[in-house]
């Protein structure tokens, strides 16, 4: 790749970044400028689908997570994606032919489309509204962005690096926006509340010191005001940046990876989201252990990177005064989640029924007969029971206080798990169909609760069991497992980009145990990129094995001898 190509790639990524930022503004001059810019990006993609692909990921920053309706930014992104997809497909058909193209993508097309057709039939049988089914399916379709990624990236190291730069720009935009919003709107400042005329009023620390009725300190959670703050991009950025800074020998890449990882860590700490922090730290720890014991020349780098991560995290937590919040949330997690973690889903589902069964039998009779009056001989026993109940009153009060201390988020999600598990048991093989809904009770930041009909679960394996049954779970495991296990035997000598892909998908899989990430477009775009690079590498290896040798091609025309090599033109290299 020439310097001229690098300039064009940089311009495409920069232009898409500016368009995405302008789309985030209120409707005005910048917003309308973004519309014009997105139209120019589409025209650029028509002339060069490779540049359109590089612009696609930064433009995804402008998308609203799970948007309630299709806005201008969603239409602009869809137009760019459609042009890139069709242009890449036409390019592939011209270069490889219909049979070779079908052979390359037969497995993902057959498995995905076959499952969706079957699930559609099940959803219609379960009387799920067509609009709900379509809304549930649309995010999954973005996985097929793997087709243009595979077609346009190929096995060229330069193309893979530029794709990584494009995806890194999306991560940088998301993390940077969250950190900027948090400090610009002073969400990091603690506040206290008092009741004035029946209304809750916020006050600062100085006023709280003079008011004995003030409650606090409290902090707003950015996840309540910025939807992107729960995106899986944040823990993925922590891990990807750390892996790049550890594995690459280039100083610029080390600095860029470290900066990205630390910025994403700051964004994660700001959200106070435990599952996000745990998923990122777990994969970083796992990767560090493996690298430390298998690559001796990187041991010092691993240790220094871990020290930098730890020092930065501690300094950021105490510098912003959020140490009490994190300690409190982790304490709530141990009080609520650890007892649950030692129980199976079946036992969790019977907790409520067990409490009902423990009531005294004298209050009712299970066989429908009237309870006999208490005899005089039983009165001393009844008095003993009353004394025991009085002794237990303080214990009951303590239990109620413990219930208040428990985390509502954890308990509500356990309730979700029970619902999903019960629905799975009703239809264990093929599930209930995408778009099926259930009633859930949530709690707002002010402590008020409300009931909402939702079509997702904050645990993606359980969600796939609910909507797709065992078949859906197997497909979900295949989608996440294939990039993780690909070329596992060559893990010691693999290029950096495969290490990034493997650890990134592991992070997505772990975070998916705690959050409804699969319905986010960004999640599926990242998976599409991983699958695209993997399929391109697999296709290139297959072509190299079947390519004719020099002796075979000596008497074969040039046009015939080169039909199995990578297709190259003046603009980009593809498979």
From TrEMBL:
It is a multi-pass membrane protein. The keyword Membrane applies. The chain crosses the membrane at residues 30-63, 75-93, 105-127, 133-153, 160-184, 225-244, 253-270, 276-293, 300-319, 462-486, 498-514. It is found in: Membrane. Residues 356-366 have a biased composition (Polar residues). Residues 260-476 form the O-antigen ligase-related domain. One of its GO terms (cellular component) is membrane. Signal peptide: none annotated. It comes from the Bacteria. Its main location: membrane. Keywords: Ligase, Membrane, Transmembrane, Transmembrane helix. One of its GO terms (molecular function) is ligase activity. Residues 356-405 are annotated as: Disordered. This is O-antigen ligase family protein. Residues 367-405 have a biased composition (Basic and acidic residues).
């Amino acid at each position: 790749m020439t310097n001229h190509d690098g300039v064009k790639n940089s311009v495409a990524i920069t232009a898409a970044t500016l368009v995405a930022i302008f789309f985030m503004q209120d409707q005005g001059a910048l917003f309308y400028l973004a519309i014009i810019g997105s139209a120019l990006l589409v025209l650029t993609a028509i002339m060069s689908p490779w540049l359109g692909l590089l612009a696609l990921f930064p433009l995804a920053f402008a998308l609203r997570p799970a948007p309630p309706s299709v806005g201008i930014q969603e239409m602009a992104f869809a137009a760019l994606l459609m042009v890139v997809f069709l242009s890449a497909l036409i390019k592939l058909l011209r270069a490889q032919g219909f049979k070779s193209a079908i052979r390359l993508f037969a497995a993902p097309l057959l498995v995905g489309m076959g499952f969706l057709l079957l699930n559609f039939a099940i959803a219609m049988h379960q009387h799920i509204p067509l609009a709900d089914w379509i809304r549930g399916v649309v995010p999954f379709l973005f996985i097929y962005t793997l087709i243009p990624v595979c077609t346009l990236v190929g096995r060229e190291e330069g193309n893979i690096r530029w794709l990584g730069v494009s995806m890194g720009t999306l991560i940088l935009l998301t993390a940077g926006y969250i950190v900027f919003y948090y400090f610009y709107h002073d969400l990091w400042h603690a506040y206290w509340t008092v009741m004035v005329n029946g209304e809750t009023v916020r006050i600062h620390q100085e006023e709280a010191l003079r008011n004995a009725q003030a409650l606090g300190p409290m902090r707003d959670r950015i996840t309540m005001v910025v939807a992107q703050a729960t995106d899986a991009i944040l823990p993925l950025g922590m891990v990807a940046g750390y892996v790049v800074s550890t594995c690459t020998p280039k100083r610029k890449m080390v600095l860029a990876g470290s900066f990205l990882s630390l910025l994403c860590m700051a964004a994660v700490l700001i959200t106070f989201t435990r599952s996000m922090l745990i998923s990122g730290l777990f994969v970083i720890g796992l990767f560090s252990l493996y690298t430390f014991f298998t690559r001796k020349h990187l041991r010092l780098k691993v240790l220094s990177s871990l020290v930098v991560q730890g020092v930065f995290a501690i300094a950021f937590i105490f510098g912003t005064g959020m140490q009490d919040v994190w300690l409190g949330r982790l304490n709530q997690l141990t009080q609520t989640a650890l007892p649950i973690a030692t129980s199976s889903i079946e036992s969790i589902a019977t907790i409520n029924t067990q409490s009902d069964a423990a009531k005294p039998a004298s209050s009712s009779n299970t066989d429908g007969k009237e309870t006999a009056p208490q005899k005089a001989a039983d009165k001393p026993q009844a008095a003993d029971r009353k004394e025991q109940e009085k002794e237990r009153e303080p214990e009951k009060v303590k239990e109620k206080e413990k219930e208040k201390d428990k985390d509502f988020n954890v308990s509500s999600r356990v309730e979700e798990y029970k619902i999903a598990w019960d629905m799975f048991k009703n239809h264990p093989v093929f599930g209930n169909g995408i778009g099926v809904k259930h009633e859930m009770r949530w709690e707002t930041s002010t402590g008020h609760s409300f009931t909402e009909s939702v079509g997702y679960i904050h645990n993606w394996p359980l969600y796939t069991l609910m909507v797709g049954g065992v078949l859906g779970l197997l497909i979900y495991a295949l989608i996440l497992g294939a990039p993780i296990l690909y070329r596992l035997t060559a893990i010691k000598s693999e290029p950096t980009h495969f290490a990034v892909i493997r650890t990134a998908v592991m992070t997505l899989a772990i975070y998916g145990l705690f959050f409804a990430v699969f319905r986010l477009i960004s999640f599926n775009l990242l998976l599409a990129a991983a699958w695209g690079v993997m399929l391109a590498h697999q296709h290139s290896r297959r072509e190299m094995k079947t390519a004719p040798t020099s002796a075979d091609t000596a008497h074969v025309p040039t046009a015939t001898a080169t039909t199995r090599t990578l297709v190259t033109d003046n603009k980009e290299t593809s498979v």
